[in-house]
Amino acid sequence: MNVRRRRISGIAVTAATAIGLGTLSACSSDSSAAGNTDKFDVVASFYPMEYLAEQIGGDHVNVTTLTEPGQEPHDLELSAKQTAQMGEADAVLYLKSLQPAVDEAIAQSDVKTKIDAATLTKLEDHGNVEHDHGGEEHADEHAEEEHSEGGEHPLDPHVWLDPVKYAEIAQGVAESFEKADPDHADDYRKNAEALAKKLGGLDTAFKDGLAKTDTKVFFTNHAAFGYLAERYGLTQEAINGLDPESEPSPARIKELQEEAKADGVTTVFYETLVSDKTAKTLAKDAGLKTDVLDPLEGITDKSKGEDYVAVMESNLKALESALGAK
Hints:
The structure is a single chain. The two termini are 31 Å apart. By secondary structure, the protein is α/β, with parallel strands linked by helices. The protein has a 4-stranded parallel beta sheet with strand order 2-1-3-4, with helices on both faces. A 4-stranded parallel beta sheet has the order 6-5-7-8, sandwiched between helices. Helices cover 44% and strands 10% of the residues.
């Protein structure tokens, strides 16, 4: 996800919305489309929101996602059909500031229940996070709307990679579902409790697994793991601001080589949805290994697990190995 985020024109989104609203009837033939079932129809913006909706909603919900498997979520541009589906849904579940095109479309949509995961936990400023790729001007443009304290950086949206914060969001989603679809409130509550236990178990596994390690520092080509690092006492060093197809500068390579020696870093992590070229270049030049640390923005055939919990367990194993867990 080190790709540069394209700016989405407000005019383009408005046009797509207008086209989408004009094609509602055309979408009604799609049996899986949001708004076309007898269930509580939820449109989720990308995988972590889709997982919550499915886990909490169970048999009572029909979930569609705006971000297809393998699609890089930050660069999502909505089709007229997707905008139309959103308009027909009973609820939309998203994470404001992660996907600008989604934010704009939801602002213009008349869907009754809009659930912004960013309001269900506390977002933090982890410095120059990934989606500040457009430079200082880009950062300034979004700092105010994302309520960054001090206005220096946008707040980090990658909260789902902290099981504790993800559980807080899940609780808020369950409460929204209960309010919007009271006939099934008891089931939503029970499903949310079951999910909370899963996420609690995951948190315990990370705490125990990373309590004693040779080093607390890990390298990644994408600054997605700030919340996870903060939760478990680690330090994330991202090779940030680089296009995935470019190579690190000699000065940056030298800096990271020195840090790797000083902090006992063994591994450069890359992810499944973007090129691994940068990570492998750094690893080769610095004499380090490479491995996958998945930011869980989508599940694909390359994912090391079939769902959120399984991939997070795989992430834990990768971190334990890289950090020298005892």
